[in-house]
Automatic annotation (TrEMBL):
All residue ranges annotated as the Fumarylacetoacetase-like C-terminal domain in the record: 71-277
Domain Rv2993c-like N-terminal span(s) in chain numbering: 1-64
PANTHER family: 2-DEHYDRO-3-DEOXY-D-ARABINONATE DEHYDRATASE (PTHR42796:SF7), FUMARYLACETOACETATE HYDROLASE DOMAIN-CONTAINING PROTEIN 2A-RELATED (PTHR42796)
Protein's organism: Kribbella yunnanensis
One GO MF term attached to the UniProt entry: hydrolase activity
Keywords, ordered alphabetically: Hydrolase, Metal-binding
Name by which UniProt lists this protein: Fumarylacetoacetate hydrolase family protein
SUPFAM superfamilies xref list: FAH
Family, as annotated: Belongs to the FAH family.
InterPro entries on file: FAH, Fumarylacetoacetase-like_C, Fumarylacetoacetase_C_sf, Rv2993c-like_N
Pfam families (UniProt xref): FAA_hydrolase (PF01557), Rv2993c-like_N (PF10370)
The organism's taxonomic lineage, starting at the top: Bacteria, Bacillati, Actinomycetota, Actinomycetes, Propionibacteriales
């Protein structure tokens, strides 16, 4: 099962439980933010109370985060990421130190309203020239800092901007279409071992497969709850938070995304996230409009 947000034609967003080809609304829960305010035990009880299931046909799927929810990221948590960052950077030692440090690198990626989901575009900056996707396990935490689920994240990144200077990370990471999440959150109680999941990525350009890669969350050097604890120590997340845990797949330096490329990321037990690459901020104007409509 997956926790999802969806819309019936002409209706308001609904929080539901998707099982196979049907989805049922969670009774008494109006938003994902409301659900993520609950302690884990209460959340489990809440999602067990669903209404009448309907077919998924014709539904619009929304990102599985809303309200004051935020997406954050952890950096340099895989050996491959450390190597790639050192290869591209003018300040190589910074990344080596982050990989082995007690304190992880954490940075804010996107507020809920800037997040795109499966089937929507992801963005590359007009002033970059060298952008790549970063397929990542994302940990979903409630407002109490408890891990309640997992989903798939594409943490889009500008290698050229970050490579010039590590202090440019915010510009390399925060831009229109820079954060994509799969439509569903797999509950934590249904995932026996989140540190034993296979992550796959395929990038297609027209009829050609131009890149593919595979890794395992077993190669992640950080403990998942430790990452959440560091994130929550100085911050309140009243509507929950999603933390992408870093990437173990980075293309070689001679590869860069192009407009129209199709990126497909899959994680065992969690699902698949597919997006087409768009350039600039204009293709993402719908996010602000969609957010305004949801607040009405």
């Amino acid at each position: 099962m997956h926790l999802v947000r969806y819309q019936l034609p002409g209706g308001r967003p609904v929080v539901g439980v998707r099982t196979g080809d049907t989805v049922a609304p969670v009774e008494g829960i109006a938003s994902m933010a409301e659900l993520l305010r609950l302690p884990l035990a209460d959340l489990q009880t809440a999602v067990a109370k669903t209404g009448t299931a309907v077919s998924v046909d014709g539904l619009k799927w929304l990102p599985p985060i809303d309200g004051r929810g935020e997406v954050w990221c952890a950096g340099v948590t895989y050996e491959r990421s450390r190597g790639a960052r050192m290869e591209e950077s003018t300040e190589q030692s910074v990344y080596d130190k982050v990989y082995t440090a007690d304190r992880p690198e954490l940075f804010q990626k996107a507020p809920a309203w800037r997040v795109v989901t499966d089937g929507e575009p992801v963005g590359i900056r007009v002033d970059s020239g060298h952008d790549v996707p970063e397929p990542e396990l994302a940990v979903v935490a409630n407002s109490h800092g408890e891990i309640v689920g997992y989903t798939v994240c594409n943490d889009m990144s500008s290698r050229s901007i970050e490579g010039v200077n590590p202090l440019y990370v915010p510009q390399a990471k925060l831009f229109a279409g820079g954060c994509a999440l799969a439509t569903g959150i797999r509950p934590a109680w249904e995932v026996a071992d989140p540190k034993d999941l296979t992550i796959d990525i395929v990038i297609r350009r027209g009829d050609d497969e131009v890149f593919s890669g595979t890794t395992s969350t077993g190669k992640l050097v950080r403990d998942l709850q430790d990452l959440i604890d560091v994130l929550f120590l100085p911050n309140d997340f009243p509507d929950g938070a999603i933390l992408a845990t870093g990437t173990g797949i980075v293309p070689e330096l001679d590869f860069a995304l192009r407009e129209g490329d199709v990126i497909e990321i899959s994680i065992d037990q969690l699902g698949t996230l597919t997006n087409t690459v768009a350039t600039g901020r204009e293709p993402f104007a719908f996010l602000a409009e969609q957010n305004s409509e949801e607040k009405r």
